[in-house]
Amino acid sequence: MKKQPVDFRPLLLLFHLALAACIVFFVYLLAGDQLASLFTPAPQITEQQKAAQPNQSASLEDEIVNGIHVPTGLIYDEGFELVRATCTACHSAKLVTQNKATQEGWTQMIRWMQSTQGLWDLGANEAPIISYLAKNYAPEEIGRRANLEVAAIEWYILELD
User: What phi and psi values does residue 92 have, to the nearest 5 degrees?
Assistant: First the structure.
């Protein structure tokens, strides 16, 4: 009597379903609330709520302390609004403030983001953005302290008794 071959297709299907469930579970664990927010509609703002919100420009002035925009940590200077709107659309402003580069360096970073990270073409905004970054986040001159001027030092003899 010849043995009938065992059909493993139902077991394979069950395995694939279990694997898919595990993947969905781990994605849920990692993404958490961000995943849930994809499926919930954005709240609608009524005209009364819009009227109750403070003036945007007035609140911006309140957020500037010693030339720094406190919520982002960016230096408040010409081009600030453009940099804040463009750069923080994808990442934290801290990524900007922790870097220092020349105009060429900032241009290279932007090209890298465009080629690998999906940054869009900045068009006419690119020049003012790079100008702001190169002015406010340029490499700092650090090195040795200035030499001591011997003539300016009053020398004395230490007596040990």
Answer: -65, 150
The secondary structure element, H or E, covering residue 32 is none
Can you list the domains of the chain with their CATH numbers? Answer: 76-139 (1.10.760.10)
Lay out the sheet containing 74-75: strands in order across: 64-65, 68-69, 74-75
Specify the pTM: 0.53
Residues with Cβ within 8 Å of 109's Cβ and at least 6 positions away in sequence, in order, are: 99, 101
Q: Tell me: the pLDDT tens digits for 15-68?
A: 889 999 888 887 777 776 665 556 666 566 666 555 555 555 556 777 889 999
Cβ contacts of residue 108 below 8 Å, gap of 6+? 101
- List, in sequence order, every beta strand (DSSP E) within the chain: 64-65, 68-69, 74-75
